[in-house]
Amino acid sequence: MTPDCRCARSTDTVVDAARMMAELCVGALPIVGEDSRLHGILTDRDITVNVVAQRENPLDVKVGELVDGPLVVAEADDDVSTVMQLMAQHQVRRLPVVENDHLVGIIAQADIARTLSHRDSGEVVEAISQE
């Protein structure tokens, strides 16, 4: 897990979030609201598909406008098998980790690959990649 993740605020513009992604060399940022609670995850793909491809002005679009669908999270005390199951079931490559409804980190597919055997991590990748 990557602890102490930098987050975008739901009121930030897409440009602000994209600059933060570039600065941090990451492809996703957690989105937190004014209540400091996790609202979603913004990916570089979200920006490309939902802003750039739609010819929206990234200076005008707020990050919170891109939050879509139910948020899938792991609890801080979940074991690795639960995390793998959640990632596979919801076909997500990044899973926020929360404790008492507050973000404490993110587990990425790469974290699983570095931690588990090739076979186990391969099964997760395969399950996430199914259509």
What does this structure look like?
This protein has 131 residues and is α/β, with parallel strands linked by helices. It is built from five helices and seven strands. It has helices at residues 14-24, 44-52, 80-90, 109-115, 118-129, and strands spanning 2-3, 8-9, 28-32, 38-43, 74-75, 94-99, 102-108. It has a four-stranded mixed beta sheet with strand order 1-7-6-5. It has a three-stranded mixed beta sheet with strand order 2-3-4. Helix 3 (80-90) links the parallel strand 5 and strand 6 (94-99).
Q: Topology, please?
A:
Blueprint: E1 2-3, E2 8-9, H1 14-24, E3 28-32, E4 38-43, H2 44-52, E5 74-75, H3 80-90, E6 94-99, E7 102-108, H4 109-115, H5 118-129
Helix pairs in contact: 3-5, 4-5
Rounded mean pLDDT is: 89
Overall shape: it is globular
Order of helices and strands: EEHEEHEHEEHH
Stretches where pLDDT is under 50 for at least 5 consecutive residues are: none
Number of E strands: 7
Instruction: Indicate the proportion of strand residues.
Output: 15-25%
Q: What's the arrangement of strands in the largest beta sheet?
A: 1-7-6-5
Which keywords apply here?
single chain, 131 residues, alpha/beta, 4-stranded mixed beta sheet, 7 strands, 23% strand
Task: State the gist of this model.
The chain is of the alpha/beta class and 131 residues long. It contains 5 helices and 7 strands; from the N terminus they run ββαββαβαββαα.
